[in-house]
Amino acid sequence: MKITFAGLGIMGSRMAANLLKNNIEITVWNRTVLATSPLRDLGATVVHTLTEAVQDADIVFSMLSTPEAITACFLEKGAALSAMQDSALWVDCTTVNPSFSRKAANAARAAGIRFIDAPVAGSKPQAEAAQLAFFVGASPEQATEIQPYLEVMGAKVITLGEVGQGASFKMLVNVMLAQSMLIFSEAVLLGEKLGLDKDFLLNVLPGLPVSAPFTKFKAEMIREDNYDVQFPLEWMHKDLHLAALTAYEEDQPLYLANLTKEIFAAARADGMGRLDFASIHRYLEQRS
User: How do 26-29 and 3-6 pair as beta strands?
Assistant: First the structure.
């Protein structure tokens, strides 16, 4: 069984490392070759072209940044999809819009390749600790083949029935995540204006039933004004854009998520794109 992992960014590098730490042999590829060095040290086979990486692979995992990156790497004429062997399985873990996942699935089917979308919930710490949640666009029977690999990269696997449903559910998760971060930041800033101690707010608010659990971790970033990236703000903005695009395709109003998207866009334009998305607090703070 030849397993290939394509895309070694913040998430992909740690997911691939967990495969290697569980004695699963993999071939890895990344557009920036330097990112492959830690995985080579763990025993990965490193190749310099994606075409070489996917040739003869039984399963190809991809974890790239955007639909455009997936298109360039897999779907364009002469790209990786055309080099994969018949009946190979392509598992895309990239966060993309559902219609794009279905487009990728159709292209794969035309090339004789099987396709599953399996985006993840979690950021850098969860990827390192193999605590990700996978949202799998496949039936339980179809997901059986990749289940052992997902279980060493994550703590939860949710199968959602058909291609595109994994991407659909991930979109809902990130829409809620972005808005929760924004709401939490606004509440803290208002609390300070009302004379409440910032440390008190950061200690108590995350533990209340009304708060999203992840705010406990982001509160420490706010406390220290240190937004070392776990999930980049620019990718959250991208995900909100894809949600807005999907809402348009489905003729579904998306009032608050679109407002949130524009605030994240402004923070990105202000130079915060490569910081953690919790830096939306710093952006609001500078304007309060």
Answer: parallel
